[in-house]
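Predict the structure of 2,4-dienoyl-CoA reductase.
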Amino acid sequence: MTNLLFTPTTFAGVQLRNKIVYPPITTGFAESDGQVSDRMVEYYRQRASGGVGLIIVEPGVINLQAKLSKFSAGAWADAQISGMAKLAQTIKNEGARAFLQLCHAGPKANPRVNSVQPSSASEKPFIFKYPTISLSQDEILGVVHDFVMAATRAREAGFDGVELHAAHFYLLSSFLSPLINTRTDDYGGDNLRRAKIVRETILAIKKKLGQDFPVTVRYHGFEDGEYGIKYEDAIELGQVFEAAGADGLHISAYGVSEPNLVGIAALPSSCIPSKEHPNAPFVSHAGHIKQFVNLPIIAVGKITNPLDAERSLREGKCDLVAVGRAILVDPQWPNKIAAGRNVVRCIGCNDCINSLAKGALNCRVNRTL
Ligand SMILES: Cc1cc2nc3c(=O)[nH]c(=O)nc-3n(C[C@H](O)[C@H](O)[C@H](O)COP(=O)(O)O)c2cc1C
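Done. Here is the predicted structure for 2,4-dienoyl-CoA reductase.
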């Protein structure tokens, strides 16, 4: 019943033992100087030993202004490479493969942590807590450079690839999203222009590290709101990333589209589907992109049931499935599903996401994170 899910595969040129991905989930377990902590290594070791094929480690932030919180993991300094290497090796020793997500928090940065005003594609407030400043073109070049240096450190640390975090309204996402990007220069306007910063980042990483080091992009396949990214935009963005040399896509979202809403009351706009959302509400977003882009695609979002996972693969909507909170709650989820055993279930309370505002990750069900 879960034949496809447990068939080995290749993603972005990397061999995986199955099609299950643990997506980036910030833990807040890093040290305040961005160093990987022992607690972080053990957290990921447990999840790798649970049988998952690929772990995309939580954001390694690319510079000191890019931190999401006081305890963000860092990829901004060479001194952080040895800790990253221990983490990557630990994951691989357990039979999983390891990517590092790279992120600049942009408009979602906390000025009290970073001592600078958060930066964004433009000054449009949207859902942000603090006022933002618009990046100049010189500053954009600096950001691209910092992404390249962070990717270089990730490769040196032994990660199998990097994922650019261009979702959830962090910096790269603020450029992609017409909900935020009101620029009138080369970095704003149509899809190609809004994608310019991501395109330049992919090209620059490939130029420095060669074509063999995988670079994938996480972005929104759909956004709520009249001006949000719609399917035709998401397809075009995927084609731009493909042409720039990206090796895979990871399709998150901000809300669900009309067809998904049939028979369901209006749902809150979200990147993290909650209790009220149906299962796997973002998979069809990935499916639309998959028809028009020749890159392997990861689907994500409340995929907690192996039958939903298998169906998404069988229907050709994606190539891999990411299982986040379900594996946060029960790290042995893949092994247990493969063996037909019961898993400990996520109750969708989202205490995990709320706990991050206070510091470290917490779970109401799994008290032993
Ligand atoms: C506590 C928490 C932290 C998260 N941190 C990140 C992050 O740092 N980067 C990211 O791209 N997504 C992050 N996400 C989103 C997840 O990667 C995933 O897209 C989301 O949880 C939906 O998948 P799930 O329903 O399987 O949990 C986070 C989600 C949670 C619950």
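The chain has one domain: 9-356.
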